[in-house]
Write a structure and sequence with these properties.
The protein is an alpha/beta fold. Helix content is 37%, strand content 20%. It has 11 helices and 12 strands. A hairpin with a 2-residue loop joins strand 9 and strand 10. Helix 3 packs antiparallel against helix 4 and helix 4 runs antiparallel to helix 5. The chain is globular and about 60 Å long. The structure holds manganese (II) ion (MN).
Length: 325
Amino acid sequence: MQSYEQSLQQTREFLLDHDDYLVVSHVQPDGDAVSSTLAVGWLLSCLGKKFTMLNEGPIPQRMRYLWHADQIVNLADGELTRTYDRVICVDCADFQRVGLTQRYFAPDALIANIDHHPTNNGYGAVTLIKPDAAATAEILFDLLKTFQVQWDIDVATALYTGLLTDTGGFRYTNTSPKVMAAVSELLALGVNGPELAETLLEEMTLAQVKVLNRALNTLQLSSDGDIAWVYVTPQDMEECGAANEDLEGIVNYPRNIRGVEVGMLFKVITERSVKVSLRSAGKVDVAELAQVFGGGGHTRAAGARIDMTLEEAIPRVLEEVRKRL
Ligand SMILES: [Mn+2]
Protein backbone atom coordinates (compact mmCIF):
# COMPACT_ATOMS: atom_id res chain seq x y z
CA MET A 1 0.00 0.00 0.00
CA GLN A 2 1.61 3.26 -1.08
CA SER A 3 1.45 6.37 1.06
CA TYR A 4 -0.58 9.45 0.17
CA GLU A 5 2.69 11.29 -0.59
CA GLN A 6 3.71 8.52 -3.00
CA SER A 7 0.30 8.63 -4.67
CA LEU A 8 0.61 12.40 -5.10
CA GLN A 9 4.02 11.94 -6.73
CA GLN A 10 2.77 9.16 -8.98
CA THR A 11 -0.18 11.28 -10.10
CA ARG A 12 2.09 14.25 -10.66
CA GLU A 13 4.24 12.11 -12.95
CA PHE A 14 1.18 10.81 -14.78
CA LEU A 15 0.24 14.41 -15.57
CA LEU A 16 3.76 15.44 -16.58
CA ASP A 17 4.63 12.36 -18.64
CA HIS A 18 1.66 12.27 -21.02
CA ASP A 19 -0.53 14.60 -23.06
CA ASP A 20 -4.07 14.74 -24.49
CA TYR A 21 -6.15 13.82 -21.46
CA LEU A 22 -9.85 13.21 -21.01
CA VAL A 23 -11.08 14.57 -17.66
CA VAL A 24 -14.36 13.13 -16.41
CA SER A 25 -16.44 12.96 -13.26
CA HIS A 26 -19.60 11.25 -12.10
CA VAL A 27 -23.09 11.38 -13.56
CA GLN A 28 -25.35 14.09 -12.14
CA PRO A 29 -22.31 16.10 -11.08
CA ASP A 30 -22.31 17.93 -7.74
CA GLY A 31 -20.15 20.88 -6.70
CA ASP A 32 -17.14 18.72 -5.95
CA ALA A 33 -17.40 16.81 -9.23
CA VAL A 34 -17.61 19.97 -11.33
CA SER A 35 -14.94 21.89 -9.45
CA SER A 36 -12.58 18.91 -9.45
CA THR A 37 -12.98 18.50 -13.21
CA LEU A 38 -12.20 22.20 -13.67
CA ALA A 39 -9.27 22.24 -11.23
CA VAL A 40 -7.63 19.40 -13.16
CA GLY A 41 -8.36 21.22 -16.44
CA TRP A 42 -6.89 24.42 -15.01
CA LEU A 43 -3.72 22.58 -13.97
CA LEU A 44 -3.36 20.87 -17.36
CA SER A 45 -3.72 24.21 -19.12
CA CYS A 46 -0.95 25.65 -16.89
CA LEU A 47 1.22 22.68 -17.88
CA GLY A 48 0.53 23.36 -21.57
CA LYS A 49 -1.22 20.00 -22.00
CA LYS A 50 -4.09 19.19 -24.34
CA PHE A 51 -7.23 18.04 -22.59
CA THR A 52 -10.98 17.61 -22.96
CA MET A 53 -13.39 17.89 -20.04
CA LEU A 54 -16.49 15.71 -20.29
CA ASN A 55 -19.58 14.79 -18.31
CA GLU A 56 -22.53 12.57 -19.15
CA GLY A 57 -24.99 15.34 -18.35
CA PRO A 58 -25.26 19.09 -17.98
CA ILE A 59 -23.42 21.17 -15.39
CA PRO A 60 -25.90 22.54 -12.82
CA GLN A 61 -26.88 26.10 -13.61
CA ARG A 62 -25.68 27.38 -10.22
CA MET A 63 -22.10 26.30 -11.02
CA ARG A 64 -21.77 27.90 -14.41
CA TYR A 65 -19.84 30.88 -13.03
CA LEU A 66 -16.82 28.63 -12.59
CA TRP A 67 -13.78 29.02 -14.80
CA HIS A 68 -14.39 27.19 -18.12
CA ALA A 69 -17.53 25.47 -16.84
CA ASP A 70 -19.02 26.05 -20.29
CA GLN A 71 -16.19 24.01 -21.79
CA ILE A 72 -17.16 20.78 -20.05
CA VAL A 73 -18.65 18.79 -22.91
CA ASN A 74 -22.10 17.44 -22.06
CA LEU A 75 -23.05 14.21 -23.83
CA ALA A 76 -26.67 15.29 -23.88
CA ASP A 77 -25.61 18.07 -26.28
CA GLY A 78 -23.18 16.24 -28.51
CA GLU A 79 -20.84 13.35 -29.02
CA LEU A 80 -17.05 13.30 -29.05
CA THR A 81 -15.51 12.11 -32.29
CA ARG A 82 -12.67 10.00 -30.88
CA THR A 83 -11.41 8.07 -27.88
CA TYR A 84 -8.67 8.96 -25.39
CA ASP A 85 -5.69 6.94 -24.14
CA ARG A 86 -5.22 8.99 -20.97
CA VAL A 87 -8.18 9.50 -18.69
CA ILE A 88 -8.48 11.28 -15.36
CA CYS A 89 -11.54 10.36 -13.26
CA VAL A 90 -12.32 12.67 -10.35
CA ASP A 91 -14.78 12.06 -7.49
CA CYS A 92 -15.89 8.69 -8.90
CA ALA A 93 -16.02 5.87 -6.33
CA ASP A 94 -16.27 3.20 -8.99
CA PHE A 95 -15.75 3.01 -12.71
CA GLN A 96 -19.47 2.85 -13.53
CA ARG A 97 -20.00 6.29 -11.94
CA VAL A 98 -18.49 7.90 -15.06
CA GLY A 99 -21.63 6.81 -16.94
CA LEU A 100 -21.68 7.09 -20.72
CA THR A 101 -18.39 9.02 -20.81
CA GLN A 102 -16.62 5.63 -20.78
CA ARG A 103 -17.51 5.27 -24.47
CA TYR A 104 -14.64 7.66 -25.12
CA PHE A 105 -12.03 5.76 -23.13
CA ALA A 106 -9.72 3.75 -25.41
CA PRO A 107 -9.89 0.01 -24.59
CA ASP A 108 -6.35 0.13 -23.16
CA ALA A 109 -6.63 3.64 -21.71
CA LEU A 110 -4.48 4.51 -18.70
CA ILE A 111 -6.79 5.83 -16.02
CA ALA A 112 -5.93 8.03 -13.05
CA ASN A 113 -8.49 7.65 -10.25
CA ILE A 114 -8.58 10.69 -7.93
CA ASP A 115 -11.22 10.39 -5.23
CA HIS A 116 -12.17 10.61 -1.56
CA HIS A 117 -14.99 8.05 -1.25
CA PRO A 118 -14.28 5.31 1.32
CA THR A 119 -16.10 2.91 -1.01
CA ASN A 120 -13.66 3.58 -3.89
CA ASN A 121 -12.65 0.21 -5.30
CA GLY A 122 -9.24 1.29 -6.60
CA TYR A 123 -9.83 1.00 -10.37
CA GLY A 124 -7.30 2.59 -12.70
CA ALA A 125 -3.56 2.47 -13.36
CA VAL A 126 -2.86 5.41 -11.07
CA THR A 127 -4.84 5.84 -7.85
CA LEU A 128 -4.91 8.91 -5.64
CA ILE A 129 -7.50 8.10 -3.00
CA LYS A 130 -7.78 9.73 0.41
CA PRO A 131 -10.94 8.52 2.18
CA ASP A 132 -10.61 11.04 5.00
CA ALA A 133 -10.38 14.01 2.61
CA ALA A 134 -13.48 16.18 2.86
CA ALA A 135 -13.72 16.50 -0.91
CA THR A 136 -11.85 15.51 -4.04
CA ALA A 137 -11.09 19.24 -4.18
CA GLU A 138 -9.04 18.81 -0.99
CA ILE A 139 -6.89 16.16 -2.69
CA LEU A 140 -6.49 18.42 -5.73
CA PHE A 141 -5.44 21.24 -3.41
CA ASP A 142 -2.56 18.96 -2.30
CA LEU A 143 -1.81 17.78 -5.84
CA LEU A 144 -1.63 21.32 -7.24
CA LYS A 145 0.82 22.21 -4.48
CA THR A 146 3.30 19.72 -5.95
CA PHE A 147 3.52 21.82 -9.15
CA GLN A 148 5.28 25.12 -9.69
CA VAL A 149 2.19 26.93 -10.91
CA GLN A 150 0.92 30.35 -9.91
CA TRP A 151 -2.53 29.93 -8.34
CA ASP A 152 -5.17 32.45 -9.35
CA ILE A 153 -8.72 33.27 -8.29
CA ASP A 154 -10.18 30.89 -10.92
CA VAL A 155 -8.60 27.78 -9.49
CA ALA A 156 -9.06 29.04 -5.94
CA THR A 157 -12.80 29.51 -6.57
CA ALA A 158 -13.08 26.02 -8.05
CA LEU A 159 -11.34 24.38 -5.09
CA TYR A 160 -13.36 26.44 -2.62
CA THR A 161 -16.57 25.35 -4.35
CA GLY A 162 -15.74 21.66 -3.90
CA LEU A 163 -14.85 22.15 -0.24
CA LEU A 164 -17.91 24.31 0.47
CA THR A 165 -20.42 21.93 -1.12
CA ASP A 166 -19.01 18.60 0.13
CA THR A 167 -18.85 19.91 3.72
CA GLY A 168 -22.41 21.28 3.52
CA GLY A 169 -21.11 24.80 4.03
CA PHE A 170 -18.33 23.80 6.46
CA ARG A 171 -20.79 22.11 8.83
CA TYR A 172 -20.35 18.34 8.38
CA THR A 173 -17.92 16.22 10.42
CA ASN A 174 -15.47 16.24 7.50
CA THR A 175 -14.80 19.96 8.14
CA SER A 176 -11.29 19.33 9.46
CA PRO A 177 -8.55 21.77 10.48
CA LYS A 178 -6.96 20.86 7.14
CA VAL A 179 -10.08 22.03 5.29
CA MET A 180 -10.17 25.32 7.16
CA ALA A 181 -6.45 25.90 6.55
CA ALA A 182 -7.01 25.34 2.83
CA VAL A 183 -10.05 27.63 2.90
CA SER A 184 -7.96 30.30 4.60
CA GLU A 185 -5.45 30.19 1.74
CA LEU A 186 -8.19 30.26 -0.88
CA LEU A 187 -9.89 33.27 0.73
CA ALA A 188 -6.54 35.05 0.79
CA LEU A 189 -6.42 34.57 -3.00
CA GLY A 190 -9.63 36.60 -3.24
CA VAL A 191 -12.39 33.97 -3.24
CA ASN A 192 -15.78 35.51 -2.45
CA GLY A 193 -17.03 33.09 0.22
CA PRO A 194 -20.39 34.70 1.05
CA GLU A 195 -21.35 35.03 -2.61
CA LEU A 196 -20.52 31.38 -3.28
CA ALA A 197 -22.50 30.27 -0.22
CA GLU A 198 -25.48 32.27 -1.47
CA THR A 199 -25.26 30.90 -5.03
CA LEU A 200 -24.47 27.29 -4.15
CA LEU A 201 -26.27 26.67 -0.87
CA GLU A 202 -28.98 29.27 -0.22
CA GLU A 203 -30.49 30.22 -3.54
CA MET A 204 -33.35 28.07 -4.85
CA THR A 205 -35.10 28.00 -8.20
CA LEU A 206 -38.88 28.17 -8.22
CA ALA A 207 -38.94 24.62 -9.63
CA GLN A 208 -36.85 23.52 -6.67
CA VAL A 209 -39.31 24.96 -4.15
CA LYS A 210 -42.23 23.38 -6.03
CA VAL A 211 -40.67 19.92 -6.13
CA LEU A 212 -39.67 20.25 -2.46
CA ASN A 213 -43.30 20.94 -1.67
CA ARG A 214 -44.36 17.80 -3.56
CA ALA A 215 -41.74 15.71 -1.79
CA LEU A 216 -42.69 16.96 1.69
CA ASN A 217 -46.29 16.00 0.97
CA THR A 218 -45.15 12.35 0.78
CA LEU A 219 -43.30 12.43 4.12
CA GLN A 220 -43.56 9.25 6.17
CA LEU A 221 -42.02 8.23 9.47
CA SER A 222 -41.31 4.77 10.83
CA SER A 223 -43.31 3.80 13.91
CA ASP A 224 -40.25 4.40 16.09
CA GLY A 225 -39.75 7.80 14.52
CA ASP A 226 -36.12 7.11 13.69
CA ILE A 227 -36.45 6.67 9.92
CA ALA A 228 -38.13 9.20 7.66
CA TRP A 229 -38.52 9.31 3.92
CA VAL A 230 -40.03 11.18 1.00
CA TYR A 231 -40.35 10.35 -2.67
CA VAL A 232 -40.57 12.13 -6.01
CA THR A 233 -42.09 10.74 -9.20
CA PRO A 234 -41.35 11.59 -12.84
CA GLN A 235 -44.78 13.25 -12.91
CA ASP A 236 -43.76 15.54 -10.02
CA MET A 237 -40.57 16.43 -11.87
CA GLU A 238 -42.44 17.23 -15.05
CA GLU A 239 -45.25 19.21 -13.45
CA CYS A 240 -42.79 21.29 -11.39
CA GLY A 241 -40.47 21.82 -14.34
CA ALA A 242 -37.71 20.37 -12.16
CA ALA A 243 -34.34 19.04 -13.27
CA ASN A 244 -32.27 16.54 -11.35
CA GLU A 245 -30.22 19.27 -9.71
CA ASP A 246 -33.44 20.66 -8.19
CA LEU A 247 -33.64 17.58 -5.93
CA GLU A 248 -30.42 18.47 -4.16
CA GLY A 249 -30.90 18.99 -0.45
CA ILE A 250 -34.42 17.54 -0.26
CA VAL A 251 -33.16 14.43 1.53
CA ASN A 252 -32.00 16.64 4.41
CA TYR A 253 -35.59 17.49 5.35
CA PRO A 254 -36.55 13.98 6.54
CA ARG A 255 -33.09 13.61 8.06
CA ASN A 256 -33.36 16.88 9.98
CA ILE A 257 -36.48 15.84 11.92
CA ARG A 258 -35.61 15.51 15.60
CA GLY A 259 -35.08 11.85 16.52
CA VAL A 260 -34.53 10.67 12.96
CA GLU A 261 -31.38 8.61 12.42
CA VAL A 262 -31.76 7.94 8.71
CA GLY A 263 -33.48 10.17 6.16
CA MET A 264 -34.20 9.00 2.63
CA LEU A 265 -35.29 10.39 -0.70
CA PHE A 266 -36.63 7.95 -3.27
CA LYS A 267 -36.62 9.21 -6.82
CA VAL A 268 -38.63 7.11 -9.22
CA ILE A 269 -36.66 6.83 -12.47
CA THR A 270 -38.83 4.36 -14.39
CA GLU A 271 -41.59 1.89 -13.55
CA ARG A 272 -38.98 -0.55 -12.24
CA SER A 273 -36.07 1.64 -11.19
CA VAL A 274 -35.66 3.90 -8.18
CA LYS A 275 -32.78 6.01 -6.97
CA VAL A 276 -32.43 6.27 -3.20
CA SER A 277 -30.42 8.96 -1.42
CA LEU A 278 -29.55 8.20 2.20
CA ARG A 279 -28.48 10.55 4.99
CA SER A 280 -27.44 9.39 8.45
CA ALA A 281 -27.30 11.27 11.73
CA GLY A 282 -24.32 9.11 12.68
CA LYS A 283 -25.47 5.71 14.01
CA VAL A 284 -25.85 4.03 10.63
CA ASP A 285 -23.08 3.77 8.05
CA VAL A 286 -25.16 4.48 4.95
CA ALA A 287 -22.18 3.93 2.59
CA GLU A 288 -22.10 0.30 3.71
CA LEU A 289 -25.89 0.12 3.47
CA ALA A 290 -25.88 1.56 -0.07
CA GLN A 291 -23.36 -1.08 -1.12
CA VAL A 292 -25.94 -3.78 -0.37
CA PHE A 293 -27.80 -2.32 -3.35
CA GLY A 294 -24.72 -1.80 -5.52
CA GLY A 295 -24.37 1.88 -4.58
CA GLY A 296 -21.85 3.69 -2.41
CA GLY A 297 -20.82 7.00 -0.90
CA HIS A 298 -19.84 8.29 2.51
CA THR A 299 -20.75 7.07 6.00
CA ARG A 300 -23.34 9.83 6.43
CA ALA A 301 -24.35 10.44 2.81
CA ALA A 302 -24.76 7.75 0.20
CA GLY A 303 -26.98 6.52 -2.58
CA ALA A 304 -27.90 3.62 -4.81
CA ARG A 305 -30.02 2.77 -7.80
CA ILE A 306 -32.40 -0.11 -7.20
CA ASP A 307 -34.17 -2.01 -9.96
CA MET A 308 -37.54 -2.33 -8.23
CA THR A 309 -40.82 -0.48 -8.17
CA LEU A 310 -41.18 2.25 -5.55
CA GLU A 311 -43.59 0.02 -3.61
CA GLU A 312 -40.98 -2.75 -3.50
CA ALA A 313 -37.95 -0.56 -2.90
CA ILE A 314 -39.22 1.36 0.14
CA PRO A 315 -39.83 -1.67 2.42
CA ARG A 316 -36.65 -3.34 1.15
CA VAL A 317 -34.47 -0.35 2.07
CA LEU A 318 -36.35 0.18 5.35
CA GLU A 319 -35.57 -3.42 6.27
CA GLU A 320 -31.85 -2.82 5.73
CA VAL A 321 -31.93 0.40 7.75
CA ARG A 322 -33.87 -1.30 10.55
CA LYS A 323 -31.22 -4.07 10.80
CA ARG A 324 -28.62 -1.41 11.55
CA LEU A 325 -30.50 0.58 14.20
MN1 LIG B 1 -16.91 14.58 -3.46
